[in-house]
Predict the structure.
Amino acid sequence: MGQLGAVYAAGLAERGMRVAVLDVTSGDTPAGVRAFACDVTDRAAIEDALRDVEAEWGVPHVLVNNAGLDSPPDAPAEEVGPFETYPESSFDAVLEVNVKGAFLCCQVLGGAMAREGRGSIVNVSSIYGLLSPVQDLYTFRRKRGETFVKPVAYSVSKSAILNLTRYLATYWAAAGVRVNTLTLGGVWNDQPPEFLEAYSARVPMGRMLHAEEALGAVVFLAADASSYVTGSNVVVDGGWSAW
């Protein structure tokens, strides 16, 4: 379920929520969390997962769309090369998970919430969907003789999430379903020291986000404490976007 997903699932379960994780693999989960094998790009698989969840716990009241695909640092050269030669297949693969996956989960799970008359959806985005990636952060790789450009697809996909949220917030407001975006800064995950130094220098708080620091915003948006919040973009980036 990924670094952030594990934190969200465990944190929500610790606060008394019954948490179902939909993932392509149903491996080990934190205490209080059930995993359901599900490909979020497959509507039928999501519908099957919803039936399983409903049979055990009823209609979900919270949906966190956290599934995400990005080119890893060791991606093939063609994926991290110039924009002009970025593979169409890579573009399609990223948007399939990051945009279509969120769209389908909102349709199926959000639709069930709307019929129930209550719910909260949190769509997870990134500062790279809010602002353009800073290609200079990767200069250290070019100095080593590598070709590296932060690919376009992730930014496009995370930008799309912002307007999916706005659309659904207005569409489902009367049905009692709130929809918000959580936009995160770069999450520390043992990145190279050169990247960490370059990134941190651009953040007013002088460091990357720790995964646990994103949990509070998820809890807030999921809970009744945010009952008048919908269509919003909650930015947790240490001040990155303030400059």
